[in-house]
Amino acid sequence: MISVLAQTSDGQGGSLIGLLFPLVLMGGVFYFLLIRPQRMRQRQQQSLLGRLRIGDDVMTSGGLFGTVKRIDEDTDTVTVEIAPGTEVRMLRRAIAQRLVEDEGDGDDGTDEGSDEEAGSRP
């Protein structure tokens, strides 16, 4: 009788580990495929917004291309000129992409790649 009880308790312990292993494995997969890349994108976006300067060509999250004209740190807004004489005030976090090369990239001062990045913008 004692040997039967010992076998059932050992069998249940093995099945508990067998149930927990797939759950832990799925948690690890979710972390590396979903959570970690999202955090990296958030850090990159924060870095982009921190380096934003007046005169930068940007693309908004709505797909508008423009040039930053003013940055208001108090209200966390920027004014973007989307056409000559047309300025739009928006939240800083609405800037999706910066289209101007950094000055410290070792560039020789020519701005050859910026027209390609901006697409068909005049």
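the 2nd protein, sequnce then structure:
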Amino acid sequence: MEQYDFGIVGLGVMGRNLLLNMADHGFAVAGLDLDTEKAAFLQKEASPDQKVFGTTSPAEFVSSLKKTRAIMLLVPAGRAVDAAILSLLTYLEEGDIVIDGGNSYFIDTDRRVAELASKKIHFFGMGISGGEKGARFGPSMMPGGDKQAYERLRPIFEAIAAKVNGEPCVSYLGNGSAGNYVKMVHNGIEYAIMQLIAESYDLMKRGLKYSDEKIQSTFEAWNNSELQSFLLEITAEVMKKKDDLTGLRLINVISDRARSKGTGKWTSQNAMDLQTPIPVIDAAVIMRDLSSHKEERIQASSRLIWTNSTSEVPSEEADIILKDAFHFAMISVYAQGLAQLHVASAVYGYELNLEDVARIWRGGCIIRAACLEDFRAAFSRNSSLPNLMLDDEIGGLLVDTQAGLRSLIKMAVDSGVPVPAFMASLGYFDAYRSAELPTNLIQAQRDYFGAHLYERNDQEGLFHTQWD
């Protein structure tokens, strides 16, 4: 056969939508799924003039693809990826390309790259962001793997990616697990921005006693300003939705136990391995975990009382404080995530271009936002910038909006409303701008109880003191 340009294993919503996106752009595509109905539904959804093929047979699927074969796996991360690779190996040949389009842990991707390289098959880890709608009409894609092999994939990926100012939101990012690593950090940033929005909502509702209508209009106004982002856009829509069962706003009948799939946790864990602080992302992960302790929180709410829960800030002043604080904290989140990518690139040899990362995040993905164009410009000015806060323009924005964040935290403390992500944003900023930190005392304590040695300001080397 050998007549199809690209194949996908796993014909759930994402896999099917990506194939139909490719077909819309004139590519002949094939899909494999063990579920007969899913394989048949792919062909049913395609228009008559599109070249789309669905099958349940791995042998038929692989033989239908043009050489060099390009196959994407869209199956759950973990064992399912290894099982899918194993099911294809019998039929693959040297030079073929396998792409994992799921949220696999980057260490697993490095292992698979090495295993398939021994068989002279290229393996790519590629983050895809944008959900089912993005897959159908234009996602942001983050591929990593062999640079030469990427040329086989580039025309297809650039055609189907979201576009911003005519530029496709996809780029070759680096070798090995670079693509999965960038997507992992993308998801950590996503956790943190969602937490900041949730804290803003909580402070408006419980601290400032805003009505649901006022909260909704506030988020909508923010999205129509320099804060424009996909997450604010959907938050404004979520706040409007009425519940079919009760007639109430749906947000008020949704449980506060938040779930997660672990990618935020991976981001925090690896940042600690790299000794790269990302405290806002850490706070977001912690708050999702804390949300699961519902029964304990109910008990604590009637015992651990704060009686002076008041906020006397006028509404107009509070609106300005909230907006400036969110602006500051959102920049801080991206700065922390991109700083982690800067360090990881050096440690893991990815050779990431952070201007490219910011560029492809501008459209299609969940964390797309107007500010990413400013971040792209910052890395264009200085490609080796270790932290966005050191850019004159971005740093100037933080200086200008910091008063709002400091005021928001005071309001939250007075109201007894938790804002750990906002607090972490300010703590990071104040620590990062401190030429001197109190960790000299920690060095002395470590040497006192464990003879762990310390460094001096006035001499080179390591020193120990007999403290007692």
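The longest strand covers residues 122-129. The longest helix spans residues 315-348.
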